[in-house]
Amino acid sequence: MPIATVNPANGETLRTYEAMGEDEVERRLRLAEATFRTYRTTTYPERARLLHRAADLLEEDQAEIGRVMTTEMGKPVKQARAEAAKCAKAMRWYAEHAAELLADEEPSAADVKDSGAARALVRYRPLGPVLAVMPWNFPLWQVVRFAAPALMAGNVGLLKHASNVPQTALYLEDLFHRAGFTEGCFQTLLIGSGAVDEILRDERVKAATLTGSEPAGRAVAATAGEMIKKTVLELGGSDPYVVMPSADVERAAQVAVTARVQNNGQSCIAAKRFIVHTDVYDAFAERFVAGMAALKVGDPLEEETEVGPLASEQGRSDLEELVDDARRGGAAVLCGGERPDGPGWYYLPTVLSGITREMRVHREEAFGPVATLYRAADLDEAVLIANDSAFGLSSNVWTRDEAEVDRFVRDLEAGGVYFNGMTASHPGFPFGGVKRSGYGRELSGHGIREFCNITTVWHGA
Question: Which CATH architecture has domain 3-235+437-460?
Fold first, then answer.
């Protein structure tokens, strides 16, 4: 895949870049290693000052970088600006909380005495250069939620971004440099995916984080396992959205539309499988289908656009294949189900019902504005359908019944359970999944500690 900005709204190639050669990659690896030796000794206040400055600059650049993201991967420009603002917020959160999250911990006095120590503590120390392999769907946010905690912990970052968002990737390197971080603290590697394995094998790279597809996660995990290096993986998701009889059905249907088509439906944590109790199925389905059909699809640079194009032509073809397979298997297309006329990689918001386990759309992640509707006879069947997936990233449940709340928290196989609202990442809450959605956590204190050497310090009596 060429490293290029191709506008998905019209297919026009705007900019192309040459991949970095071996010599340049080697220079950057040496720089990362050398920079870490000194950067690791900086204080939390020093790092926080730099990260606050990066947040200031990002807020100043919000409109400009928003347009860049939109022209690179097609998200509506309002959502692109909101993404930039969210990144600035996360930077400030880690700048303000890192010292507390990574403060020395003291074991209990009883354990210290029992160990024969005069005193003991646990200290969090940085690991070194961390390789981040990041996707195009949230080209700023995916990177910042790794970079902000990694930099505050004293690590340095090497970014291998998706090949279709090179301008955003280069912007991020420039942003941290303008903020005052030493050049080697955060570097973008303009390389193809084929170069990742060799870099991950390099002894100077101490750990890796990847957000992306299951095959990409398997490849990185395999190499990291062979090299005995820490990894965090955030892979695909096919999140359930369960609606029970006690729910506010009208509100649930309204939020369901946003939950499905956020980021043009290209979000791992977008709700994808809508599992509705039979008592409220018809009322929910009517409202949900009407809401999906009414969405404005168009030029993502126009302020009123709600759904833009998919990021690539291949992505649209993959989505079409899932819908066509379901249609051949007997699924009903309640709205959408086709590409509109004209240029660009658009696909109409689509709702499918009558889904069976044999259909690909039941087993695979639909990465675009396609929703599947399921009817559940009771709570037991709702849980069964929700868990009938290889993925386990997040989940959404609409109920006012506290007994049902307890049951869903106990039984849903997911990294998050969001009640009476849609899944959304926040710097204060851990983010990640189970099963084939990956392992490890980003964000919160859990995320910043993922790439730390958790060190026991013991002093004899």
Answer: 3-Layer(aba) Sandwich (3.40)
